[in-house]
Amino acid sequence: MKIYESAENYLETILILKRKNNTVRSIDIVNELEYTKPSVSVAMKNLRENGYIEMDDDGYIHLTGKGLRIAEKMYERHRFLSDWLITLGVEEKTATEDACRMEHVISAETFEAIKKHVKGQS
Predict the structure, then answer these.
(1) CATH class of 75-118
(2) What is the pLDDT along the chain (122 residues), one digit of tens a residue?
(3) pTM for this entry
């Protein structure tokens, strides 16, 4: 099943918030991404129905194994690409924004080749 960029962004955001705050609720995502409550609510419903997240009775959001794998992949790409662009001389804000777009469209093969090259293993 193809997961869309917006879903990848939500999963990555959940991972980041979980690491930062130890818990995640929909309102935390609303505040972090500056999206509307209804938009986040619909997204959480879709993620839950597709098995990427679970919500407990208190409204806390938890990544499933499947959701965690995607979130970690996106987060690794984001951090790596941001850092790489910064070392190339790109201003941090621009590097972060560009990395956010790049992380979703780059193939696994290309990402691994870039990583290998940057780490001097090519």
Answers:
(1) mainly alpha
(2) 467 889 999 999 999 999 999 999 999 999 999 999 999 999 999 999 999 999 999 999 999 999 999 999 999 999 999 999 999 999 999 999 999 899 989 999 999 999 999 988 65
(3) 0.88
CB 99 within 8 A of CB 93: no
What is the residue extent of each domain of the chain?
A: 5-69, 75-118
Structure tokens at 112: 């691994």
Yes or no: domain 5-69 corresponds to CATH 1.10.10.10: yes
Q: Find where tokens 């940057």 sit.
A: 118
Beta strands in the chain (DSSP E): 53-55, 61-63
